[in-house]
Amino acid sequence: MASSSSSIFTGVKFSPILAPFNSGDSRRSRYLKDSRNKVRFNPTSPRLTPNRVRVEAQSLIPYNGLWSQPTSNKGRLKRNIVSGQRSAIFRKEASGISLSQGRNFCLTCKRTQPGTKRSLPSAFVDRTSFSLSRSRLISSLRKHSQILNATVGPDEPHAAGTAWPDGIVAERQDLDLLPPEIDGAELEAFLGCELPSHPKLHRGQLKNGLRYLILPNKVPPNRFEAHMEVHVGSIDEEDDEQGIAHMIEHVAFLGSKKREKLLGTGARSNAYTDFHHTVFHIHSPTHTKDSEDDLFPSVLDALNEIAFHPKFLSSRVEKERRAILSELQMMNTIEYRVDCQLLQHLHSENKLGRRFPIGLEEQIKKWDVDKIRKFHERWYFPANATLYIVGDIDNIPRIVHNIEAVFGKTSLDNESTPTSPTPGAFGAMANFLVPKLPAGLGGTFSNERTNTADQSKMIKRERHAIRPPVEHNWSLPGTSVDLKPPQIFKHELLQNFAINMFCKIPVSKVQTFGDLRNVLMKRIFLSALHFRINTRYKSSNPPFTSVELDHSDSGREGCTVTTLTVTAEPKNWQNAVKVAVQEVRRLKEFGVTRGELTRYMDALLKDSEHLAAMIDNVSSVDNLDFIMESDALGHTVMDQTQGHETLVAVAGTVTLEEVNTVGAKVLEFISDFGRPTAPLPAAIVACVPTKVHVDGVGESDFNISPDEIIESVKSGLLAPIEAEPELEVPKELISQSQLKELTLQRNPCFLPIPGSGVTKLHDKETGITQLRLSNGISVNYKKSTTESRAGVMRLIVGGGRAAETSDSKGAVVVGVRTLSEGGRVGDFSREQVELFCVNHLINCSLESTEEFIAMEFRFTLRDNGMQAAFQLLHMVLERSVWLEDAFDRARQLYLSYFRSIPKSLERATAHKLMIAMLNGDERFVEPTPKSLQSLNLESVRDAVMSHFVGANMEVSIVGDFSEDEIERCILDYLGTVKASHDSAKLPGSEPIVFRQPTAGLQFQQVFLKDTDERACAYIAGPAPNRWGFTVDGVDLFQSVSKLPAAHDGLLKSEEQLLEGGDRELQKKLRAHPLFFGITMGLLAEIINSRLFTTVRDSLGLTYDVSFELNLFDRLNLGWYVISVTSTPGKVYKAVDACKSVLRGLHSNQIAPRELDRAKRTLLMRHEAELKSNAYWLNLLAHLQASSVPRKELSCIKELTSLYEAASIEDIYVAYNQLRVDEDSLYSCIGIAGAQAGEEITVLSEEEEPEDTFSGVVPVGRGSSMTTRPTT
Q: What family is reported (predicted)?
């Protein structure tokens, strides 16, 4: 298996300081995990793909920001198809469609966050504690007392229950540990002061009880987010209502006519259901495109209809019933089932372990409209909802007026007279209803039931004071609860051993300076644990695959959970558990060192400082998600500036002893396991395979017992431990004297750029500068201030896996992983290089795709952060160290990936399709064991390093730097790289071919034995690459003007409408090198919309269907893939329906409104991303690459006008280049179930033919391990 030690390209992944442990539903499954909410030490990410080795060096706080939420949205439904990663235990993502696309839109996968991604600075000050003098304390208090507070409305009753049980008192901090100059009483008074509230956050409440929050935010401009949160979820369902909240979400959302009217405005929408709430959200422009009509009233009106006035039509209910049943089978992967097992045992004492939002199939099938309506009447009313509006708002009173005008009419008076309901499990809590209720609902609520209609109504309309309304058994010292024996979940589709040890405590609200101080100390303590485990074990056969310690708050579960998760190969599981417990115990017993305290404290402060500088660049959706989660947890919401000021204030009071005292309490349930004073684990759950692979033997049974698990934990408690030694951290990787010597030897300079005659080519319109170094390396850079004092850099080297020969299959991808695993450069050890990255908060990723090898850096310009990133890049290029044990780990990793393919329906199905379509070409799949065994360290090193020829390397940089700063770094650290100028030495690429139809492999099937039924399918075929080249070597631009026009009648009528200027734009588009890139992107939007409308919405054959294009840049080919999930009984019809849609563009002509909608979608996405440094980095890619000769500056400058100029005729020109006939189209259907046709078997290495299961991934250009290729 892969090594326990990861590389220099791995670091600490941390979450925001203010809500440092928010959204901790991550511990149950790696597919629901949000790395921002935990400390991770995961050397072999489960999402690693052979074509994309990406191991990130994260800053102590991740790039999404201190006061912004992550893209993954913490547990919402994820559609990562290859691994079946659609777990939606905590949130059921909606049936929602994009208003701009008219099709399924996955909020989790598609959301982008311009302006917030960054890596953070800096070198650390050499100090071991941060004393805060008395005068500074007083000054800080005075300063914060002057910070404006938000407009405060009523207390939010839906905050998670956070009260500690009676008799449990948190141990007071030992003030004697503080520096003597601080007066203990003053410090205690200071720490007890409340944190300031966000000065721009406006809260209010209507007379009918509806709460609203409004926050002006300018990113993205001229757009806003409106989220209606109804405080009802699966936890509120009775035994015969399991899944009904999710059903209502579907019916209400997709049945709204007012939402449909927003189609074409550029708005998009979605919805999701969770344990504790249902959220309907719309992302909309502030005004319509062609006029100044205000869209706020229309959006609010749509949300009002969706939440409070849905029409429960029988036709819509039946349509959504079919969709949900399909969704249920789609998401019922082995990962989802593991999630369910973990939650069931973690929350065995309450309904959280039994009320998953998706519901139960047998109940979903039988509810009638009346049953659904009654649940809606019980929970969906204004006093049980909160409206959030964040965006480009200038006039808050006007927005408030709109809210009152739209929602003020909605009250309980206009609802139908209810029948006497069956009270919920927490119906007795009706006295905690919102105090401000409309007439007729006032007065005192009694727990006694009566027969009057009014009192029936009052009991029915419940709003719980605590969300979610459950009681927990806390893992606290001194409790009389007995230890629950370890639970074991065995399944034939599991590949590895994994164990989770849970500790569950109440949420500690972050409302005072003291609360924030405790959070900071925990962060420092846990970050040390990450680094220690990440670097201690470097053998070629490590005891574990990964170890993660997660300490996080969960608003949806109403608790804070600490989880130790250990994964390993089954044969190593006992030693893996022992080592993990041993390391936890070492940290608890000896604590962090003074050097670690200094290092991580300074990193957190620098990150906070950077975020404060970026206060005007945080996106509205990030701010909104953060506010929603913080409100659910009861945390005080501050803006970035307030957050930094408060963090600086409390940092000065922290001491080493207190950090170790506070941090140790987090680990006691592991380190003191078995002692009478230790907190009892809430649950211990092991998930294991039924059979394991044994070298030379094959598959054999795997057995494990609860007693063996307990013994392995105890062995870690008895193992000898020693204190952690201090490590010397290099301040620089290249000294000034070394740099001076290199400069004299190599004399770096800029040469004239080919075709321009100048050494520096600058475009004023875009701000892009192009340079060419004397060693042949091309450089593009753009100065950007949108992300304050932050930058990104990417090295792209042409070649990638396509350069692998028949004798070196897998050499490039294993070589890149080997380089990553080794982590050494020059004379610096792996530990020193990692600490150098931590000190400068450099985030680095290394990846291998089919076409390229790429290395990307995120950095800040504070404390020489950019210089440090350039130094690391220089050392990797010049003085990389290739290690035998790192190669062994990399090879073992891919052996494990190959063997796991037959246990994944999606991966096995995709594999068979790709092998068939690409004639068994192993460069597009995971390498087989036979190929891996033929590799050695020398062969993989040569395969990688042979690409590093000067003219084959391009570096692009975007950031908030000056011209002098960036060009100095370019000359000093890139110009002094000794790069070869001999392009003839570059490895060639063997031809890539699509299999001829005579082979009879156009349609195939995969069957997988499983306890539950599921089905998926993939349909694929050839396409040109982004620049108009086909796999046959045809240059489509040579004949694009001669291509036959489709549908002459339609195109003539369209041409008659074109003005002279528009015709010129069309001619320009046809001649532009990006013609096929533009038209193929628009075509994909149109096909996606039709697939959703037909296959999902009209025919009810699937819940999830998508069309995606994979257009290469360097390789002369591309392909399209339709991914569809269904049931075994419907999947064949679903495939036929998808084919009909794909081929039906000639018989069912593209309408102008379809093209307009596609244009708006892509242009809106483009405009929103322009404030992101990472997006500009993508635009700069290949600008000077000789292997992508058609990429030029106009591809960036004219992107908007090219989209606008595209006509329906242009789309048909692109469509005609897709091969959709029976001979060219390939499909594969995968069916899992107890009665599946045949079982996938694992072939031994000796009997592997060319077309065996070798980890197929029908993707390209660096996509993740997924069968849904990305464009």
A: Belongs to the peptidase M16 family.
The CA distances from residue 793 to 943, 1178, 1263, in Å, are 24, 10, 19
Distance CA 804, CA 987 (A): 8
pLDDT value of residue 985: 64
Measured at the CA of 500, the angle between CA 498 and CA 504, to 5 degrees, comes to 170
Q: How many Cβ atoms are within 10 Å of 981's Cβ, its own excluded?
A: 12
> Using an 8 Å Cβ cutoff, are 626 and 68 in contact?
yes
pLDDT at 196 over 90: yes
C-alpha to C-alpha distance for 919 and 993, rounded to whole angstroms: 7
**294 backbone dihedrals φ, ψ, rounded to 5°:** -75, 125
Instruction: Map residue 571 onto helix, strand or coil.
Output: helix
Q: Which two tokens stand for residue 676?
A: 């009478």
- Interhelix angle 1208-1215/1152-1169, rounded to 10 degrees, is 90
pTM reported for the whole predicted model:
0.81
pLDDT in tens, 1060-1073: 556 777 788 899 99
Element (H, E) at 41: strand 39-41
DSSP, collapsed to helix, strand or coil, labels residue 852 as: strand
The residue with tokens 């302006």 is: 115
d(CA 1198, CA 1187): 22
**Token pair in block for residue 912:** 């068979």
Determine the straight-line distance between the first and last CA of the chain, rounded to whole angstroms: 32
Q: What is the pLDDT of residues 920-952, one digit of tens each?
A: 999 999 999 999 999 999 999 999 999 999 999
Catalytic residue status for 320: yes
| pLDDT on residue 982 | 63
Catalytic residue among 225, 229, 305, 320: 320
Please name the residues in contact with 886: beta carbons below 8 A apart, sequence gap of 6 or more: 3, 7, 818, 819, 821, 822, 823
Whole-number Å distance between alpha carbons of 373 and 241: 12
- C-alpha to C-alpha distance for 516 and 527, rounded to whole angstroms: 17
Residue 720 three-state SS? coil
Q: Judge whether residue 403 has pLDDT over 70.
A: yes
Write out pLDDT tens, residues 990-1046: 888 898 887 678 899 999 999 899 999 999 999 999 999 999 889 998 877 665 444
Task: For residues 759-764, give the mean pLDDT.
Answer: 96
**CA–CA distance, 1194 with 1210 (Å, rounded to integer):** 19
Confidence at residue 540, expressed as pLDDT on a 0 to 100 scale: 55
Q: Which of these, 116, 1166, 1261, 1258, lies nearest to 796 by C-alpha position?
A: 1261
Compute the distance between CA of residue 258 and CA of residue 277 in angstroms, rounded to an integer: 22
Q: Is 249 a catalytic residue?
A: yes
SS3 194: strand
**Continuous segment of H or E residues that includes residue 503:** strand 497-505
79-125 pLDDT per residue, tens: 222 223 323 333 344 333 233 333 332 322 323 333 333 332 322 22
Q: Is 180 exposed, middle or buried (0-12, 13-18, 19+ CB in 10 A)?
A: exposed
- Select which of 225, 241, 249, 967 is catalytic: 249
The widest CA-to-CA distance across the chain, in whole angstroms, is 95
Distance CA 855, CA 820 (A): 11
The reported pLDDT for the residue numbered 143 is: 38
Please report which confidence band the pLDDT of residue 727 belongs to, taking 50, 70 and 90 as the band edges: confident
d(CA 800, CA 983): 16
d(CA 284, CA 220): 11
1038 contacts: CB under 8 Å, gap ≥ 6: none
DSSP code, position 974: I
Buried b (16+ CB within 10 A) or exposed e, 789-817: bbbbbbbbbbbbbbbbeeebbbbbbbbbb
Q: Helix, strand or coil for residue 20?
A: coil
Sign of the CA dihedral 459, 463, 468, 471?
negative
